[in-house]
Amino acid sequence: MGVQIDIGQDGSAPVGVDLEELLATRLLVQGNSGSGKSHLLRRLLEGSAEHVQQIIIDPEGDFVSLGEVFGHVAIEASAYSTIEIARMAERIREHRASVVLSLEGLELEAQMRCAAAFLSALFDAPREHWYPAIVVVDEAQVFAPAVAGEVSDEARRASLGAMTNLMCRGRKRGLAGLIATQRLAKLAKNVAAEASNFLMGRTFLDIDMARAADLLGMERRQADVIRDLERGQFLALGPAITRRPIKVRIGAVRTEARSASPKLVPLPSREPVDMAALLHAPSEEAPRPAPPPPAPRPAEEVIRIIDTTRPALPAEPSLSGEEREAVVAGALAEILAEPNAAFQPAASLYQDFLLRCRMRGLASAALDLAGFRRRLAMAQAGVDDAPDWEEALAIGAALPDEMLAPFLMLAKAARDGAECPADAAMAEAYGTSSLGRVRRLLSYMEEQGILVSRIDLGGKRSISLPHLGWTTAPAFPDPEQPSRLARPARRR
């Protein structure tokens, strides 16, 4: 069961975002200044704070207030070097801490350099730390500009490369990019194109309206509707939200930004003469200097806070042994149903498995990586934990991990007296498209005395497992082989 994040309403109907789908498909938010982008991001972050790690790159320091309610660690980037920022990013991935990286006190080029170092360290984290996390980048056009600006080429390339990695390759590492921009025309196209979900707010420039309409699948003549949106209204589209464009009014939030939109206040009710006298009057005493800002925390102290921070996940429901096993089996079945799942690294599949288990209420790790490899191989071969499989599993445990699935596939066919699996089926279980590797695999197992392969005069192969006393029925290694061997009848 997925987690739905309520973001607002379409008329009277509530509109939700599927968090699991959002992690896989990413999000792009666009709207002019004052359209409500930051409010929308805050609504999404507040709704998902208890379910997933959040990492926020905040150019204006608006999201620091999330820490007061949800425990996000605030990092004032201006107080640290890029090396210290990268070290913090490594710890953030390791300990799954939710953080806000505030770039408020930095110049534009320094912001780009800092964001590049931070994102690169998140991206380069060790494989065992590839936990799912939402990475929010506000004002994304600053960090992924479409054209060169006033900053140095080195800073622009580093920042653009880090943003491209986040949006193009971050999903395999558990990083889901949620980016917001004022101007689509100023955002690099290869960064924007990787998002599959869109929330388009009010904008007035023709070039931005045209790009927004293209992303929403609307005709150019329909783009004027984007100009007519009210503040806090967005056109939504994407697999995590809706399959057809809808208009969403974003709901209320629990926290507030440190900065707010300007409001009208009454002018002072003084006569012009009194105002002139007031402005020209000599000052009686020098104004008191503002108190100095608090000293920034040392980098080691911030790292210690990150190390001791734990994500605010909801309490895990009490599940019986049968319920936990059902969650594990369901997650494994969904993974195997994904296209090309057999060709993905086991570590990447393991992170996907942990995420699916958490979405079903099993927050603690149901299996370690070694146990996951074993269960995944068993699921691929259709083998269960019945006692009559103990000896076969013990033999398979002596093989390298990647060979367990094809061995169990052979063992199941031999136990059932079914036809010997074709090379192509074993190649998929082995995680390869090379039939030559499958033949070398069978040769290796035969050299180890695990199996005996026999090919009859008709070209059919049967495989016996001498330790178990099981043998497959003969079958062609290649199902297309009989048709290729067929000969046309001789004319009389």
From TrEMBL:
Pfam families reported in the protein's UniProt record: DUF87 (PF01935)
Residues in AAA+ ATPase domain copies: 23-342
Top-rank lineage group of the source organism: Bacteria
Region (Disordered): 470-492
InterPro entries: AAA+_ATPase (IPR003593), ATPase_Atu1862_pred (IPR014588), HerA-like (IPR008571), HerA_central (IPR002789), P-loop_NTPase (IPR027417)
Entry protein name: AAA+ ATPase domain-containing protein
The species this protein was found in: uncultured Sphingosinicella sp
